[in-house]
Amino acid sequence: MIATQLGAVYPNKYIVVGGHFDSTSYDEDAPGADDNASGTAGVIEIARILSQKLFNYTIIYCAWSAEEIGLVGSGEWAGNAADAGMDIVGYLNLDMIGYLQEGSDYHTDMMAPSSAQPLVDLYETVVGLYVTDFAVNEGTLIGGDSDHTSFNNNGFMGIFPFEDSENYSPHIHSDNDLIGPSVNNPTLAQKFTQAGVAFVATAAELFNGLYPPMELALVQNENNVDLNWSTPVDGTTNFEAYHVYRNDEIIATINNIDDTVYVDNTIQNGVTYNYYVTAAYTGENGGESNPSNTVSVTMGLMQTHFWDFEDGTQGWTIKDDNTGWRWGVPVNLSGNNTNYLSTDSDDVGSGTHVVDYAISPEIDLSIYSVAYLEFDYGWRDYSSDEFSVVYRTSPGDAWITLEALSSTSGFTTHNIELPEAALTATAQLAFYYDDNDTWAWYNAVDNVKIIAAEQTSVLEIPQNLTGEAIEDHIHLEWNPVSDSGFVAYNIYRDDAQVHNISNIDETTYDDIQNLTDGQTYTYYISATYAEGESGQSNEVSVTYDPIGTGELQNRTVSVYPNPLPQGQNIRYTAAATIESVTIYDLAGRVVATTKVNQPTGQVATAHLKPGMYLLKINTTEHHTLKKLHITAH
């Protein structure tokens, strides 16, 4: 049974929550109270609560059939979802949530492969915030499985918070799986459900009524990054500006809703940049939207090392016998018909301990600021064996685990960012396998790559240049640069330098030079350092209009005191009757507003923190904008 709650912003991105509704028994009856009426009821309760709200992402609620005979229902659905290319952000599984061993604290044992760690982290975070007396412990599933595996096996992330991996209900799969002996703690089931509500609501993102920019995309060029996006799906009303964020800091503000392109020229090789864009709206219900999707890039990445093992081990050290890694011996994993490294505990059977490191040659990683290990691997595990990626800073040092790998149904490509500690001149990487002296299965590794970038030093470029025509001049503002070697800001108009400023904190300029009515001027700025001149900032184009079409002239309005000490009221006077005064913060959110209907008045600002604000004064037909600086006592 499937129920779909359509997302308001990203209807084609999905959060899935489910549990199986079938039960089985070794006896005549199979009531299945804990396994899994408890989980199914939890899914239904989550749906009841969340269906009353609107979310950015689509939520799919599922009750699976035939889990007890091999994950049949969820396996079929997840396989079809993968074939259809569904963008499933994550899956939460509810299976057996009602039994608590006497004397135990409220907790869950988390079952998830390492590939689903981002979902585990999110679950732990929301439980810590909203269900504070519900511990999340690491668990190991022995002798069974559940529907989260269907999602992990099809390339999605799935997690399974379980009542207890060792002390679960002893009554499942019997006619005693009843409320009372088996579902013996309704409060535990409630906590599982509360955690599920918090997790799904957080992952699906509650819609705040403000539509974000859509479909942010990135193009990496040699010396810059091009960003482009689509306008909000329903965001034309009261639109004010786009805010472009890089690594969670605003680097540009764009005031035209149709201007959906930004070029970031302030980049360095070897640095990873994460971008997103928001939309700011005015009005009574205005503010800043949720972020768009995030796009990321690491500049200057290139493949520096590659081992395909076609003609041998290519410098890698292995045992090359049936007690460890072997070269050129195929195992029963789909997706690769070439030579590779493999182990096969199943082939040698019990009595032979298969354990070995496949060790790389020494690699000089010291010249790189960032490096990734990419490889193809496959592993059919047997719960008792282990397979991991490790490194050491030089031969003879102790191995340090990078990541414990997850089982797969065939070869898959995997990527790991190497920690800074691994970037030495004598680094070694290895794939470690140990069947722990049990009769296990097999694994393989192929096409190992190092992808890295050298860090380059570039001169910092001034950010977030803005411009506007005010009375008899054009006013420019920008964000300051750091003070390392700074000499001057250079102001360019129509590609010709018109001014320079030697004070690093002076980040405004009023252009009054030979301005022509109705003409549009294009500006950018740079910074000069002891080492030379930086690249150019973003460009802004401003049409000079000294009369002021549709705007109340600034010289007819007085705002005082400005700067304003924190706690005082801002006062204003004008030559015309003022209808309203609104104060915005730099994110475009309304922080104060008042109705006036007279040419003078004041606005209380005691609740505002020190900082920069924008004051908008409206008359019947015109408006003017003033920057307001509130200072600390």
TrEMBL record:
<dbReference type="GO" id="GO:0004177">
    <property type="term" value="F:aminopeptidase activity"/>
</dbReference>
<protein>
    <submittedName>
        <fullName>Bacterial leucyl aminopeptidase</fullName>
        <ecNumber>3.4.11.10</ecNumber>
    </submittedName>
</protein>
<dbReference type="InterPro" id="IPR007484">
    <property type="entry name" value="Peptidase_M28"/>
</dbReference>
<keyword id="KW-0031">Aminopeptidase</keyword>
<dbReference type="InterPro" id="IPR036116">
    <property type="entry name" value="FN3_sf"/>
</dbReference>
<keyword id="KW-0732">Signal</keyword>
<keyword id="KW-0479">Metal-binding</keyword>
<dbReference type="InterPro" id="IPR013783">
    <property type="entry name" value="Ig-like_fold"/>
</dbReference>
<dbReference type="InterPro" id="IPR045175">
    <property type="entry name" value="M28_fam"/>
</dbReference>
<keyword id="KW-0645">Protease</keyword>
<feature type="domain" description="Fibronectin type-III">
    <location>
        <begin position="461"/>
        <end position="547"/>
    </location>
</feature>
<dbReference type="Pfam" id="PF04389">
    <property type="entry name" value="Peptidase_M28"/>
</dbReference>
<keyword id="KW-0964">Secreted</keyword>
<keyword id="KW-0862">Zinc</keyword>
<dbReference type="GO" id="GO:0046872">
    <property type="term" value="F:metal ion binding"/>
</dbReference>
<dbReference type="GO" id="GO:0005576">
    <property type="term" value="C:extracellular region"/>
</dbReference>
<dbReference type="GO" id="GO:0006508">
    <property type="term" value="P:proteolysis"/>
</dbReference>
<keyword id="KW-0378">Hydrolase</keyword>
<dbReference type="InterPro" id="IPR026444">
    <property type="entry name" value="Secre_tail"/>
</dbReference>
<dbReference type="Pfam" id="PF18962">
    <property type="entry name" value="Por_Secre_tail"/>
</dbReference>
<dbReference type="InterPro" id="IPR003961">
    <property type="entry name" value="FN3_dom"/>
</dbReference>
<dbReference type="GO" id="GO:0008235">
    <property type="term" value="F:metalloexopeptidase activity"/>
</dbReference>
<feature type="domain" description="Fibronectin type-III">
    <location>
        <begin position="212"/>
        <end position="301"/>
    </location>
</feature>
